[in-house]
Amino acid sequence: MSYLDQLKQQATDVEEEKKAEGQTEGQLTAIYDTKVRPRLEKAYQYFHEVTQQLAKIQPKTPVHYELPGVGPLLKLFQDEYILSSYHKVDDDFFVRMFSHGELKQRFEVKSIAKMEEYKDYLWKHNTKFKYRQVNDAKSQFLRAVFEIQGEVVAQINFKGNLENSGIEVHTQNFPVLGKETYLVPVDHFSDDFFDQLAMFITRANVDNPLKSYKISHTWAGKARDAKQIQREKILAELKQHEAEEKQAKALEKEMTKPVKKIKKPQHEAEKTGFFSSLFGKK
Fold first, then answer.
1. Binning pLDDT at 50, 70 and 90, where does residue 232 land?
2. Contact 144, 131 (CB under 8 A)
């Protein structure tokens, strides 16, 4: 089998696979429309009521955050909850939790590398801070002094997942500093699960109902991307091969065309004959 035949066979396989995926996608869309989206909308309504009640109660719940290399952030209380609007295009929403404290904690580092490392870490983890760089008389770095301002922002995002018929849950700084991703099957995303999750979010219960649904940050992305890249590569190679073949045929056709004899103008023929007679040429 020639290379071109191999490419054509692979392209045929890709097309057949696309057709099968189209049928599967239709089934997944039906499940998403009848199960996933309604459960997500119900969850939004549930947390809308929860945040309304919390706004009235205004609880101050002690929280424990640990800053690597420094230690615990002291005397912080989770005391504010905000619910986003429901985004109908993407089918997602989030609950944001603020922890505040009056105590300002200071620590210092003695290298520029560590200073940059902590700046980056605190920014990424939504931890409010100030810092100042201390230099010597020659403007050379001596140390950097950081001051944690007593505010940590945590967030939980909920988003529908079509391909896996479930709800993605992305947490930031909850229950600890950092990010995690979970995928909850739609059948597990029940009213009872809402209650467990609400108790966890308000820290009324330390048991994480999401822990058994934890997935990798790169989950489901690499496989699909690699597959798509392979498809594009096959189709691109086939397209390039066909283009080269077409160009070769066009060149061959051009080379086999009969050469037309160009008739010289009368005055040019006469001029040539005149010079030939002068130099004795017939």
1. low
2. yes
Helix (H, G, I), strand (E, B) or coil at 183: strand
End-to-end CA distance of the chain: 63
The DSSP 8-state label assigned to residue 87 in this structure reads B
pLDDT in tens, 134-180: 999 999 999 999 999 999 999 999 999 998 899 999 999 999 999 99
SS3 per residue for 102-153: CCCEEEEECCHHHHHHHHHHHHHCCEEEEEEEEECCCCCEEEEEEEEEEEEE
Q: Are 126 and 148 in contact (CB under 8 A)?
A: no
Tell me the domain boundaries of the chain: 27-220
Give tens-digit pLDDT for 62-79: 999 999 999 999 999 999
pTM, full prediction: 0.67
Quote the CA–CA distance of 222 and 184 in Å, as a whole number: 20
